[in-house]
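To whoever is on call:

I kicked off a structure prediction for a single chain this morning and the downstream step that reads the tokens threw a length-mismatch warning. I double-checked the sequence; it's 207 residues and nothing unusual in it as far as I can see. Pasting both halves so you can look.
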Amino acid sequence: MSSSPAAGNFKVVCLFHENMTGTVHVLDPSVSLPHDQAFYDSETRTEAAALLNDVDHMQSMQHGSGNSVIVGGGEVISTPGGSDTLSVMRFTHQAITVHVGETVEWTNVDSVTPHTITFGTEPPNPIPPSPNVTVDADGARHGTITSKSDSVHSGFIQAAPQDRIGLAQAPPGVTRFRVTFTKPGYYPYKCALHDLLGMKGVVHVIP
């Protein structure tokens, strides 16, 4: 807090979620506040309920083939104070069954939040992919698991930042990750960023 507060309108941003912004209106001490804390608490509950009950973001989580897993989900919503973001910290089809030799593809449909697909040991730095991950011709990252002891990590998969006038275009984001399984077994995985929130899954590979 500043030692010399001043009245004015101050923008608040989340440096990690670049579309998450707001505005704080600071009034002179002689001016009465328009609302009390109970009002803002009620507004927060109402907005949270509206976001969680908004079903249109679920439509984007229904595409893909039988070997596809949607990673998260989300949307950006305009507000009078800036922007709100909604993110679903889950893998759809948290348990998926495939045959030996088949490939599973994960796709991040969240407009803001990065996620990872991490099998085995979590790396100290979750941003880059593990060294055993390659890049397919269409830009998707690709790993191969040959043993239940293998560690394969996607690195961050997320959409490119929104382009703005006067700035160079951002390169396409890496939003897809594939893993080919060569041995039967159960292969648990997680998002290294959100596993404590329950963002985990398992691939059951059968002969």
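Update from on-call: the warning came from a stale cache, not from the record. Cleared it. Sanity check on the structure: The chain has one domain: 56-206.
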